[in-house]
Structure formats: C-alpha cells, structure tokens
Amino acid sequence: MRNLKDVELDGKRVLMRVDFNVPMDKQGNILDDGKMRGALPTIEYVLAHNGKLILMSHLGRPKGKRDPKYSLKGLAPHLQRLLNGAVVSFAEDCVGTEVEEKVSSMNPGEVLLLENLRFHSGEEENDADFSKQLASLGDVYINDAFGTAHRAHSSTVGVADYLPAFAGFLMEAEVNMLRSVVESPERPRMAIMGGAKVTDKLGIIENLLEKMDIILIGGGMANTFLKAQGKNVGKSLFEKDLLNEANRLLDKALQKKVRLLLPVDVVIAGEISADAVAKVVGVDEVPDDMMIVDIGPHTI
User: Fold this and answer.
1) In terms of C-beta density within 10 A (0-12 exposed, 13-18 middle, 19 or more buried), how is residue 123 classed?
2) What dotted CATH number matches 4-172?
3) Contacts for 184-189 with beta carbons within 8 Å, 24 or more apart?
4) Who has the most CB within 10 Å: 152, 177, 270, 271?
5) Do the beta carbons of residue 143 and residue 171 sit within 8 Å?
6) What CATH number has the domain spanning 185-295?
7) How far is it, in rounded angstroms, from Cα 14 to Cα 139?
C-alpha cells in the first residue's frame, strides 16, 4: 500500500473516502460515532499538513435517490466538535457546480463533508462519469474506509483510476491486522463473523475455511445458516435463495475439519426498536411472531 506519509499535502485538495455509515435514531441523532472517531487520525494528519480535505461517505441504502433520512448533514457539526472546532462545512450534494464552487473556496486546514454518495446511482454502479466528477474535486485520493473497500463503487475503485491513491492510517491498520491473523502460523485461529447479509461474506467464509480452525457466525447472517439447518427463525431476516449455499459451506467445514459454530441461544424481540421487550431463548425455541436480534449469553 502507498503510505499517506509519502505524499505532499500542503495546499492540495485531498479527496478522502471515509466510512461514516453510523447508526442513527429516527430523530437523526448519532447512536455510535465509533466509525467517525476511527477516521480522526487520518483527518487530523491531513489538516495538520495544510491539506484541503473533502470527505465522502455513504449512509444506509437510499438506492440511488435523495432521501432526507439518509442525509449526512447532521454529521458535519458532530465532526466539527470531534475536531475541536476545525472548520467543517457541508455540501448539499457530492458532485455538481455548487460542490465545485465550495471546494474552490476552501482554505488549507478546512474540511468539506459531501452529501451521501448513494443519492446517485452512479456510485454503486461504479459509473465512469460519476467517478470522474468525484475525482475532479481532488488532487490526491485517500481511502480510509476499510469497511467498504470490498465494494467496486466509484468512491472506492473508480476515483483511483483518475487520481494518485493512498491508504489512510485506519485502512493501513485494518489491513495489517488482518494480514497478521490470516498469514500467521499460530494456532488455534478463530474468526468471528457478523453482518446482516450472507451474500457479502460468501467469498470470505470460503477463504477462511482454508485458514481457520474455528469460525463463529453471528449477526443477521447466522439466521440463514440456522434456517438451512431446518430451524425456525420466526420473522427474522434471512436469505432464502442462499439456503443451499449455506448448507454447502456447512458441509465443506465438516470436510475441512473446521468447527463452524452457530448460535446456541439468541435474543428475540417482536421488533427492532428502543422500547421492544427482548428475551433470551434457545435456538430451537424461536416463536413464529418474534425475530432474532442478537446472539445469546451462552453463545457469547
């Protein structure tokens, strides 16, 4: 990876991909700003070296359309507080004339947060024109969004075709940590996996079956594996079209003598909300009118 410290930033427009896909409540309050804090070392480094920092991120799944509930606008004042009062402005879009004007008027050491990338369908399509528009905003590109780096989108792949690209400090740390675990000969090795969708993780599970001794699958993706085993998951999210694939991975784990662990108990609720009543049950005791919202204490 090309290191951020290898590039001259003084006076440069630095276009940086961050992962500000933070959980928010219905009123737009940030419930957990951990992802924002994770990007601070790279952000602060750029500002300390007089870069003009343009931040871009997605939030949720607005499906290529502008949706106020997925706006990043409320994150700008919070980021300004995290940066101890550094100038943080917000752009009402991520491309276009108004954005270009805001970028041209920036001073070194200032931050401009762009609106949600996914308000444009070109982002997830890795559209060349959209990538060029984003790239035109910067002189240098930094990717510090490890959590989205596996997706071939304009802000993660397309922009790097048009600008010199470098890894941010968070990206470096994440990759180095992953390498140390995957490439280390020390055993036993265990991977704990979560997330909502099996689709995003199939390749990773397949790969880890060659490297791990134990794999624990939790999160929403565990529901698909539990359903594949014939268990009732009630109203829980699961991927019906991947049940056969889940069974195939379970069989392959047996062949490879890898312990692929699924939850033995779960937390269930009638809905996902702050005031929902939750309780713990065995994995064979999920009622039809309830959904799995977490792994249980015995699984933990």
Assistant:
1) buried
2) 3.40.50.1260
3) 187/213, 188/213, 188/214, 189/213, 189/214
4) 270
5) yes
6) 3.40.50.1260
7) 6
* Domain ranges for the chain: 4-172, 185-295
Taking each helix axis from N to C end, the angle separating 40-48 and 169-183, rounded to the nearest 10 degrees, works out to 140
Q: What is the pLDDT of residues 131-157, one digit of tens each?
A: 999 999 999 999 999 988 888 999 999
Angle between helices 221-228 and 243-256 (to 10 degrees): 80
Tell me, yes or no, if the two domains 4-172 and 185-295 fold the same way. yes
In the chain, the amino acid numbered 10 is D
pLDDT confidence of residue 154: 96
Quote the CA–CA distance of 236 and 217 in Å, as a whole number: 15
Amino acid letter, residue 275 = D
27 forms beta bridges with: none
What whole-number distance in Å separates Cα of residue 279 and Cα of residue 86?
Answer: 44
CA-closest candidate to residue 277, choices 264, 296, 290: 290
pLDDT over threshold 70, residue 185: no
CA angle (296 as vertex; 292, 298 as ends), nearest 5: 150
